[in-house]
Amino acid sequence: DAGITQSPRHKVTETGTPVTLRCHQTENHRYMYWYRQDPGHGLRLIHYSYGVKDTDKGEVSDGYSVSRSKTEDFLLTLESATSSQTSVYFCAISEPGAEAFFGQGTRLTVV
Amino acid sequence: AQSVTQLGSHVSVSEGALVLLRCNYSSSVPPYLFWYVQYPNQGLQLLLKYTSAATLVKGINGFEAEFKKSETSFHLTKPSAHMSDAAEYFCAVVHGSSNTGKLIFGQGTTLQVKP
User: Fold this and answer.
1) Closest Cα partner for A97 from A52, A47, A34, A50?
2) Do B34 and A44 touch (CB under 8 A)?
3) Contacts of A86 (CB under 8 A, 6+ apart)
């Protein structure tokens, strides 16, 4: 299995609070991604990174920000959590032209 | 814009029966296509990928998929279902012609295998 660790694995937070999810890789892959998984929607891309400090928006980026200060770490921040951000969040990594490898996911509940 | 459509959100088969999960894509460029499997409370695992080599792609666990450009399809099959195949399956296409690896996913198909 690719070395991808997501933390925390589960989190419950209150509406309006900031939340940060962490993705850590040991594979030295260039690309890192954050997806959210919701029933009936499959997985949708939130943000991705193509290098240290190089990030770009995905399909559903509103309300989210990311940072990548080191090759191995990619952080996803919900600035002010809302109930619509209750979801399962997956981090993925890949090399150019190759398949993506996924982490185990973080289940986030916003109450 | 690229998109992926999986026909049937739930498919139920008997153990030993043929598994057929349907995926159609739209893409303005030659696509890279993938099938991933997700077991309960786990991440996604790559089953197989098409990257413009052979049109019939063999994957893990006895699954295979055939790329048909004329039908814009990439259906997933397995000759004989096993109980352990029960999971959710996702078809995906790489977004655009760039090399960024961004994936566009279908909605997913849950496979139920009955004894």
Assistant:
1) A50
2) no
3) A108, A109, A110
How wide is the angle at C-alpha B6 spanned by C-alphas A97 and B92, nearest 5°? 10
CA atoms of B49 and B85, how far apart (whole Å): 18
Beta bridge partners of A76: A21, A66
State the amino acid at position B30 in one-letter form: P
Upper half-sphere CA count for residue B80 (Cβ side, 13 Å):
1
pLDDT digits (tens, 9 = 90+) for A19-66: 999 999 999 999 999 999 998 889 999 999 999 999 999 999 999 999
pLDDT tens sequence across A73-111: 999 999 999 999 999 999 999 988 788 999 999 999 999
A99 — contact with chain B (CB < 8 Å)? yes
Distance from CA of B41 to the nearest CA of A (A): 8
- Name which of A42, A58, A101 is nearest B106 (Cβ-Cβ): A42
Task: Please tell me the distance from the alpha carbon of residue B47 to that of residue B61, in angstroms, as a whole number.
Answer: 8
